[in-house]
Amino acid sequence: MPYPYHWDHAALMAQGKIYAVGGYIGSEGRAMDQIRAFDPETSEWTDLSPLPASRHHVMASVYPSPANDAFVIVGGIDGELGDHATASAWLYNITSDSISELPNMPRTRAAGAAVTYDGLIYVIGGMQDDGVRPNLSAEVPIPSMMVFDPSTNEWGERDGPPVHLEHIAAAVFDEGIWVVAGRWGWGEGHLEKGEVYIYDRKTMSWHEGPRLNQPRAAHGVVVIDNKYLVTVGGEYDGTPLTSVEFLASSSLCERRESEYQKVRAVLNAPVGVLSLLDRIAQADCDDVRGSDRRWIRGEDLPIAAKATGG
């Protein structure tokens, strides 16, 4: 990536390219207005039209459209205003390399996560400027999740996760929105946590998921081929992390069970042997579903990475 490097930025993938939006230049003490695209086929970065205003701790997600040719950019901190969270919402069109305004969010927000799910855009967690204190506050009252409906061009609010976190990462996985870890509190009293919360859109409710082995914040998550949810890097107690953890989709177990049942049906084996095989097959699925579901540690990153853009 060419200088200046993005830090505390938003990152997403659309139309086969990776986009880095906004961010912070620590060495210069200012927010960025840059949007860049990385093409994996050419291994080249391209500078695109800048944001209307500089933002760091900004959030972005794909705009739901048949062409998949746009993404929304929401919130973030405007360094020009003395580190205040904003409620701005913009639409970036990939085809025309242009930015237009969307209705502002009902609340200011930064350092949260934005995800697109079933035609709606969800903004979850993060910090908001409470309008009273000059700094940022993690004490965001519930409902703390904002939802944008492109069909009506309107924002609404719903209950957020039971514990409000900032510097989180989120992704759509296993037919739900997964909020993975983050930081609780702000300033000297902050604490990185490893809790995972899952949003069920059908019931509009949250429940806890399997906890990470390593608590973290300012990390990234990515879904690989709808089979694995992977969390990468971040920081814990001020120390950047190299650790990687992944969680297998419950659908993998369903596929394995289906394949096993086909084989079992043609086996000419004693009942005792079949019973043993059944127990082995069940144990093989314990790591991807139910109360025994757990994150698996992967190979560490070659270097520590934090503030990776989610």
From TrEMBL:
Keyword Repeat: yes
Protein name: Galactose oxidase
Keywords linked to the UniProt accession: Kelch repeat, Repeat
UniProt cross-references to Pfam families, sorted A to Z: Kelch_KLHDC2_KLHL20_DRC7 (PF24681)
Keyword Repeat part of the UniProt annotation: yes
Native species: Vitrella brassicaformis (strain CCMP3155)
